[in-house]
Amino acid sequence: MKVVTILGARPQFIKASVVGSAFKQAGIDEILIHTGQHFDTLMSDVFFQDLDLPQPNHHLNIHSLNHGAMTGQMMEKIEERLLDDQPDWVCVYGDTNSTLAGALVAAKLNLPLAHIEAGLRSYNRQMPEEVNRVVTDHLSQCLFAPTPLAVECLHKEGVFEGVHLVGDVMMDSILTYQTKAKQTSPILENYQLRPEQFYLATIHRPSNTDDRDHLNAILESFQSLDYPVVFPVHPRTAARIKAMELEHYLTLDAIRPIPPVSYLDMLMLESNCKAVITDSGGIQKEAYLLGKPCFTMRHETEWKETIEAGWNHLVSPKTLQEAIANFKKPSEASNLYGSGDAAIQIAEILLRSF
Known about the structure:
Blueprint: E1 2-7, H1 10-25, E2 29-34, H2 41-50, E3 58-59, H3 67-85, E4 89-93, H4 97-108, E5 113-116, H5 128-139, E6 142-145, H6 148-156, E7 163-165, H7 169-184, H8 187-190, E8 199-202, H9 206-209, H10 212-222, E9 229-232, H11 235-243, E10 255-258, H12 263-272, E11 276-278, H13 281-289, E12 294-296, H14 304-308, E13 312-314, H15 320-326, H16 342-353
Parallel strand pairs: 1-2, 1-4, 2-3, 4-5, 5-6, 6-7, 8-9, 8-11, 9-10, 11-12, 12-13
């Protein structure tokens, strides 16, 4: 059986590393298409190196465009590759433009489509990611849901056939790479970081970075915390900070800006920080899996179960300090994301479906 996997962004590389390993063990031939959506060394190449991902069979080198142009160019190039490769399944992850482009082309070519991380909903259609999720789910023949809530969301939209509750492949990733991170990552030593004496922040969404006053308020809120904020600066965020003349915040003792980091380094930062401050979907989930409080700079989240479990809190710049001060660790950490065998289940289900 032959699967073409379409990737383009940092979180997808992480998930594909464990799923690709399961494919190999199951005897499934996998062809990787990298759209180029994340294209620089720190957002792309380092993940292939650290996670032992094979180099992509096809690199489309499409990036730094508006949503329509990016998705359209990806579709054109993906179609060429799929016509040549003629896979038995097309596999996409998550909610990026690469996901949507792959899903649309697979549907147009009548190729079976598998969506890993299906059924997530923030119910905010102003987020491009939400549109990408919904469209991809409704085009897919195999929908691999990470949680019962994701299954419920699909059922509410009339999607029943091909839905499989498998758990979350990020659970697989953490179990696979946590030991390697402890053994090989030098990031705590490099930045002289002590456990529980720093916060970790990642901010990149347009809702947080495109408005100067709001981005200013976020950076200002970091000044009020009891420990410094280690801030791996996403290239998009760095460009906004420079364009909006907010670079002075990055010279203050309260914020420690660093370049984007590898997955192994991120695991070490997440495992050792006092708490996570983020607008990323995946990092909310990783914080939960690593037993760290998370404060999400958004009005909503697609990972609602982390809110219900008490580990994640939606905040604004005005409420961040108070939310951190009032956080009380939940007495239990229930198993929300499976037992770490999602990738194996995905491989087995695709083989059975084939």
